[in-house]
Amino acid sequence: MTRNDHDDSPSDAPADPGAAPLNPLPVAVWLAIGLIGVIEAALWAGGAGLIGGAQAVGWRLSAIERLAFSGAIQTWMLETGRFPVSHLLRYPAFGLIHAGPMHAFLVIVLLAALGKFVAEALGARVFLAVLLIAPMAGAILFGLIMADHSQAWLLGGMPAAFALVGAVTWWRWRAAGNPAGRRQAFGLIAVLLAARLGFGLIAETGQVWIAECAAFGFGLALAALFAPGTWPALRAWMRRR
Asked: What is the fold of 27-229?
């Protein structure tokens, strides 16, 4: 029996996003989780007194004060019309600072598994767009809703994880061939929301879920907007109309 000519070629289907991230990861994913890992390792080592001397014990608190996103700060910027770079930096940087090692570890695991799927299924550019833009958009919405709460702080990479879930959901929805399959495409976000209830007891408090759910929606929209083939299909549809 002769082998099919396609037997030796890798499958076009990406890996299961729920699988353990043990296989080689795309470079863009390594960069994202590596940056989070290096920052968390430095903050942990400083807090444990292993590096940096006595002042390093306060590195995490200082990082949170400088880089975490604040609804009150966003409100101040909108009301005064002043947008200092030090405050604008909070929008892309809040996802790099975590409450502790467990918080960072869970984010890294999720970003590795989900990021591998998104980067392989939709491409590194879509992965980076979802990873960078959706959490910032989620933070903006979080700040608008929590404008009157001076203690409304946002930090950590969970909004980025939810954004990637949005991208995975869109990919599964598009790939589904029937209504039942399209409904099942939203199963992953349901599981993550349920898991987040327990995770919130460990590492997060407050109304962070607002930014996470918003990031999911923005991630889904960005995946649909920037995925390969979207614009040619849109142009073809417009010509038919």
From this structure: Rhomboid-like fold (1.20.1540)
